[in-house]
Amino acid sequence: MLEWAAAAGEICLKYLDESGFSLWAGVTYTWALRGKQKRIELSGLTRAQYKRWEEQGLYIFLLPSYSSELNRIENEWQRLKEDELAGRMFEDEYELALAVIEAIESRNRANELEVERFCFKSEKSN
């Protein structure tokens, strides 16, 4: 229904993904307690903004865990990790961030994708 409203011009629909990247290629398996999704510390920073964003007219709809077929950005993250960043090593997080930005911009040009970057200031960055 949200995609229909966006197609009709009634709303502006954006997909937000809490994707993670690391300096080194991770192992292909992991573990978590049954019924618990593996989370990173920074997810809390995003979730802390929900109320403020709603007051500004931005509503967050969370997709069920492990439902990549519902989030169109998941295939792009997978391609980016496998095609653009696989096998590369980075000196630090800054170099990794630049490589991710460069890869996204490259995929944008090659596939005529619409990409918009947002920078969120966290309370920890003060």
Radius of gyration of CA atoms, rounded to a whole number: 16 Å
Number of strands: 0
Order of helices and strands: HHHHH
Helix/sheet category: mainly alpha
Q: How does the overall form come out from the CA principal axes?
A: globular
Quaternary state of the chains: single chain
Q: In whole angstroms, how far apart are the ends? A: 39 Å
Main β-sheet description: none
> How many helices in DSSP terms?
5
Q: Which stretches are low in confidence, meaning pLDDT under 50 for 5 or more residues running?
A: none
Q: Proportion of β residues?
A: under 5%
Mean pLDDT across residues: 76
Number of domains: 1
Share of helix among residues?
25-40%
Account of the protein in words:
- The protein has one domain.
- The longest helix is centred in the C-terminal third of the chain and has 19 residues.
- It is globular, with a radius of gyration of 16 Å.
- It is mostly helical and 126 residues long.
- It contains five helices and no strands.
Explain briefly what this protein structure is:
The protein is an all-alpha fold. It has one domain (2-24, 38-125).
